[in-house]
């Protein structure tokens, strides 16, 4: 009898914890992600500026060597890379969401959705940017980035994924979250 009550309590606790966890996850989706086109534009602006300002100089310095000259020359082409990044985010947003939904169930956590979505987006974008950003940086279209793709893409993908997952997306989601909290308190 005592054992049955303990089991009942454990099941009840698991049910309410799961329900609370699901509500927190739904709240995360509601509070930490854009709700309309204006918020999406703000989210995209923050994300793209952070990403381009961190990822482009890092990849360039790994390619050309860490120096102030390399760093400063990267900033000359960054506006062009930023335009390509924004265009790619807009192009890959829908396909990445569809692939994410195929890989993860709706009942999975907010963090699981964010990690897989980030992974899918970065894979798609890094494939294109490994070639296109090289062309922009070299200021010419050549076969060199295509020939060296399989040597450079893993490094570019790793750097991009790490920066997106650990820096750019958390900051952008935090700003959107604070915006929603501020609007709710108004």
**Count of discrete alpha- or pi-helical segments spanning 4 or more residues:** 6
Q: Report the structural category.
A: mainly alpha
Instruction: Give the topology string: H per helix, E per strand.
Output: HHHHHH
For the biggest sheet, the summary is: none
What fraction strand? under 5%
Based on DSSP secondary structure assignment, what is the total number of beta strands? 0
Low-pLDDT ranges:
6-24
In helices, the fraction of residues equals over 70%
Shape label: globular
Distance between the termini: 53 Å
The average pLDDT is 85
Computed Rg: 21 Å
For the record, the count of structural domains works out to: 1
Distinctive features:
single chain; 186 residues; mainly alpha; 6 helices; globular
Could you explain the architecture of this structure?
By secondary structure, this protein is mostly helical. It has one domain. It is built from six helices and no strands. Helix 4 packs across helix 6. The radius of gyration is 21 Å and the shape is globular. The termini are far apart. About 10% of the residues have low confidence.
Briefly summarize what is shown.
By secondary structure, the chain is mostly helical.
Topology (SSEs and partners):
Layout lengths: L1 H31 L4 H28 L3 H36 L6 H29 L5 H4 L1 H37 L1
Helix pairs in contact: 2-3, 2-6, 3-4, 4-6
